[in-house]
What does this fold into?
Amino acid sequence: MRKFLYRFIYFILILIIVVCSIYLFYFWNSIAEAQKESDVLNTIEVNTSEIENSSNDENKISESEERMLKIKKLKEINKDIVGWLEIEGTDISYPVVQGKNNSYYMTHNYKKEKSRNGSIFLDKSYDWKINSNNLLIYGHNLNNGKMFEDLLKYKNKDYYEKHKIIRFTTDKEDSEYEIMSAFKSRLYYKTEKNVFRYYQFINPKSKKQFNEYVKNSKKASLYDTGVKAKYGDELITLSTCSYHTEDGRFAVVGLKKVEKKEE
It folds into this structure.
């Protein structure tokens, strides 16, 4: 009986070691995969001959022009790539895709390969032709320090103070967004009334709808950033899972900075 017990305990220990080893393999592999994806933009080479109407001399292009051209080249890998999202000083620096639905890129990377990390992806319904729109962008929080996990750090105002700007680059524009609010939320049941379903705000149909979103996001914010938006402005909303409650979500909303034209 004692011999059998020893063997059973030995078997359990071996099983635990195997399971832990498999978990650690996938954990570190997901980190390495995300880091490799984050570095993609730096591996793309461009030359001045590919820039039309460059604002600089023919031997030099601006950083923004270079980034936009790199996005254009990335789109050759996958036409679903719409841009690059980056928050300086954080681990958030990834290509952004937009699929025909909001499920495919939860389990596939920007090259359409199966991936536990999924992708950073723009809501399928976002209409690029609508002004005063909201770039609603999703990403996983996988507790591995990558993808959108750093968004949760915006619960702390001190962290916000050091990382106020969201940068989003497409093949046509290199834009910055000032963070306007950061708040906890969740997925609400259809039966719940008078709740702030931030994840439904895409392609606003009226000034009232836009203003309601701004008002509610400011009201829900964990702190006041002093950033204000008005109808006609463009927004960006970054959303990820949060475990503060069942079906929890955490969102960060930014206001697009508009350069003032010199008179």
About this structure: The mean pLDDT is 85. Residues 75-256 form a domain with the Sortase; Chain: A; fold (CATH 2.40.260.10). The helical segments are 2-38, 40-43, 63-74, 157-162, 207-220.
